[in-house]
Design goal:
Number of strands: 0
Number of domains: 1
Shape: elongated
Helix content: over 70%
Distance between the termini: 5 Å
Largest sheet: none
Strand content: under 5%
Order of helices and strands: HHHHHHH
């Protein structure tokens, strides 16, 4: 994301500058929603629709504008495909083993997949891997230190947000 922003800000054209401003706006919205959702999920073990739904609508409204400004309609299609793919995988996991994921996680990855998918499939892969690694690492530490057991519910939303945020920054 950072190299793309740099290219857009130094590109010189009005379309590039507008796209950079929209990307920064999208990043700011991501950061605000991520912080609020992570805190709520850590405290209450839920990801409220009243935050996820408006965030999803904002993101889906922003993408076509960015695609148009950047002349990259395929990025918009890829973003939607990535969000739907990640959400369908999580929905499948939820249906097979309901205690493993909440429906808030399923809805959240739809938005996160759209963000990462706009940058490319490698960003989506990085988001998934970093989310799972961070969640797994913290869970392992909690188990080893006996601060949690196999039956302790650990919210996954903060790790999904952290992993995707890192993937976006690094992509």
């Amino acid at each position: 994301m950072i190299p793309l922003l740099g290219d857009l800000l130094t590109g010189g054209g009005a379309a590039e500058l507008t796209a950079a401003v929209l990307l920064l706006l999208g990043g700011a919205v991501f950061l605000i929603c991520a912080l609020v959702l992570a805190l709520i999920d850590l405290r209450e073990h839920r990801l409220p629709n009243r935050i996820i739904y408006p965030w999803a609508l904002f993101t889906l409204a922003l993408l076509p504008l960015l695609g148009l400004l950047l002349g990259d309609g395929s990025a918009v299609l890829r973003a939607v495909a990535a969000g739907l793919t990640w959400a369908l995988v999580f929905l499948g996991i939820r249906l097979v083993h309901p205690p493993s994921l909440g429906m808030g996680d399923v809805k959240l990855v739809l938005v996160l997949g759209v963000y990462a998918g706009f940058l490319g499939w490698s960003a989506v892969g990085a988001a998934v891997v970093l989310s799972c690694l961070s969640g797994g690492l913290v869970s392992a530490v909690l188990l080893v230190t006996r601060r949690a057991s196999r039956h302790t519910a650990i919210p996954f939303g903060p790790f999904l947000l952290l992993g995707t945020g890192l993937a976006l920054l690094l992509s």
